[in-house]
Task: structure prediction
Amino acid sequence: MSANEDQEMELEALRSIYEGDESFRELSPVSFQYRIGENGDPKAFLIEISWTETYPQTPPVISMNAFFNNTISPAVKQSILAKLQEAVEANLGTAMTYTLFEYAKDNKEQFMENHRPVNSAVSTSISNIISVETPNTAPSTKKRDKKEQLSKAQKRKLADKTDHKGELPRGWNWVDVVKLSKTGSKDDE
Result:
């Protein structure tokens, strides 16, 4: 079987297994997230698995870069990723996404035994990107675009313009007919 056929079969299996599971999220047909632990659990964490073109013959890329993991120290993240990498090596050549998610669920307490919640600002500055890249995959050549930093006043002004869901209110770009008619009449004279 080709890698694409294996991926299609695994994708179909993942969709049927995790149907209705709020912890599972399909980001794309080759990228998945799973939350280990309940919402509000201080030891909960999120794993993201992305398949390479030749997966499952080559290892997937496993990441813990999600914002959800900001309170987990870089050392604990590295420890979890190292243990998951061992599971990847043991399952190489087979569909392993479900296996990795279940392995993480079964070993959550062991993975998080050294977890001490850290300030998210500290963990972000210490380690912005922690992920396991396999030597078989080419390193990403895309550079992350630097996001524009807004001041509190700018954020407040932006929030006041929107309906606090991020959407602009209906008619925000409409032209005021009265103003337009006054300026238009001067030009006509």
In short: The beta strands are 24-28, 31-36, 45-50, 61-63, 131-132. The first helix runs from residue 3 to 17.
